[in-house]
Amino acid sequence: MIPFYANAESRGYLADPEEVAKSRIWLAQKYGYHLIDFSSSSESTQKLMSMRKDPRQIFHGLEPGWLVSIPDKAVLKPKSDLLDAYHKS
Questions:
Q1: Is it the case that residue 26 has pLDDT exceeding 90?
Q2: Where on the tree of life does the source sit, at the highest rank (predicted)?
Q3: pTM over the 0.70 mark
Q4: Which pLDDT tens digit goes with each residue over 52-76?
Q5: What pairs with residue 76 in β-bridges?
Q6: 3-state secondary structure (DSSP) of residue 86
Q7: Whole-Å CA distances, 30 to 8, 17, 34
Q8: Are 66 and 75 in contact (CB under 8 A)?
Q9: Residues of 64-82 as b/e, b for ≥16 C-beta within 10 angstroms?
Q10: Separation CA 88–CA 86 (nearest Å)
């Protein structure tokens, strides 16, 4: 399973970002479409498209170590400073 997430061709979140960019260009050339250049877009679009998830995060925007209960629609955060420091290291 780790090779899938570390593979640039599957755009895995553990893959090298430069390799992912090369893979995106190769795929666009293969199927004949043009990649969108976000440098000419608005500032908010550029900010949105430049956001990246840390490999330790399960969901984007949630810190590592937080538990998510989907049925309860709740995010459980550690109360211990020791646990918090552990997950941030």
A1: yes
A2: Eukaryota
A3: no
A4: 877 778 788 888 888 899 999 999 9
A5: 67
A6: helix
A7: 16, 20, 11
A8: yes
A9: ebeeeeeeeeeeeeeeeee
A10: 6
Query: What span, in angstroms and rounded, lies between the C-alpha atoms of 3 and 54?
Result: 17
Length reported for the chain = 89
**DSSP string over 7-59:** -TTTT-TTS-HHHHHHHHHHHHHHHT-----GGGS-HHHHHHHH----TT-SS
d(CA 64, CA 13): 15
* Contacts (Cβ under 8 Å, ≥6 apart) of 25: 35
Q: What is the DSSP letter of 89?
A: -
For the chain, the structural domain boundaries read: 1-52, 53-89
